[in-house]
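Budget justification note: compute hours in this period were largely spent on complex prediction jobs such as the one shown. Inputs:
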Amino acid sequence: MYNNIAKSYNELHGEEQIKKLDIIKKNIKIISPLLDVGCGTGISTNYFNVESVGVDNSKEMLKYGSGNLIYGNAEKLPFEDKTFNTVISVTSFHNFKNMEKALLEIKRVSKNNSIAITFLKKSRKLNYFRKLLKKHFNFKEIDCYNDILFLIL
Ligand SMILES: C[S@@+](CC[C@H](N)C(=O)[O-])C[C@H]1O[C@@H](n2cnc3c(N)ncnc32)[C@H](O)[C@@H]1O
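Corresponding output:
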């Protein structure tokens, strides 16, 4: 799906994503190295001034992106256990086929559970996502423009 809109993604959604990233920045201490799951063109990966890597499974989004972005799947992250001090995922989770697997992968590669996930408010999967989070983490919710920001600390 994202392959088709990759070329115009930044123009269509860049401004909106930056507003969400501003909110994340205000609410969590970002510590290097950072992982961005479902990084798209890297807007969210490159926003914070830290060593970061983004993972996405759309080759087209990566092609139109910049920065340290690699091809990979959220449900099977290509990293060792406890690699990252901060993990973010911005407006991507509703796309993941197996959201629980992706959450457990994020937990696995995170060093100390400093995780910020924004989830599209209008998605039908929002309540199910909340249920999954409750099963695996303690978290708080913050309004984040078109998304809800879930902070796992
Ligand atoms: C709305 S975009 C968000 C991109 C970026 N986080 C941002 O804020 O601009 C959602 C991204 O999730 C990616 N995605 C969807 N399913 C994925 C999966 N299973 N593994 C990795 N990335 C995935 C899509 O390719 C797309 O680039």
